[in-house]
Amino acid sequence: MKIASLFSGGKDSVYATYLVQKEEHSIECLVSVFSENKESYMFHTPSVEKVVNQAEVMGIPLVIEKTKGEKEIELEDLERVLLKVKEEYGVEGIVTGAIQSVYQASRIQKICDKLGLKCLNPLWQRDEAEYLDELLRENFKVILVGVFAYPFDESWLGREINEEFIKEINLLNEKYKIHVAGEGGEFETFVLNCPMYSKELKVIDKKVLREGDYSFRLEIEVE
Question: Residue 10's pLDDT is what?
Fold first, then answer.
């Protein structure tokens, strides 16, 4: 099946794309939505512009749509770009990295139904702890580019998801109910390397943006 991937550059969208490609579907293009609203209900925002670099090392065309990020209205922008890739790339389905967000999954499903596209959610309802272990086994190099909950601070930015991280995040889950894979919006990620890349991306510059007592973003430059 010809597929377009809803692509943010974070672990979930990249890994979902990887799983669908392993099933021998053809990834015709990546679709990224750049939101002006950093608090978008639908779209990942930290360092999202760097999907351009990821698409390059994946060798897959990238289609970018911009939105003001207004709740519900941003769905019209998503529908418009999905119709565009259906017409231009002949895609028959959309893959998402949704794990637990009913809000996101239901709205994407509704758009796909309207456009006659199949919606693939290979991570849906996955056990979060097992999922992180699987990322390591599959040689995904993932860093944090945003933290948005107590007790996170800026020291977590740029940290790689590795065995030490998994131990610590499990402790935070036990103590503070932090979702192990960040599904409560507690953290956002960026994939520096995975089996789909022709080479690993390197962080060559970074800037920390503080938005609140426990809210920090990392804007990165990669090559």
Answer: 95
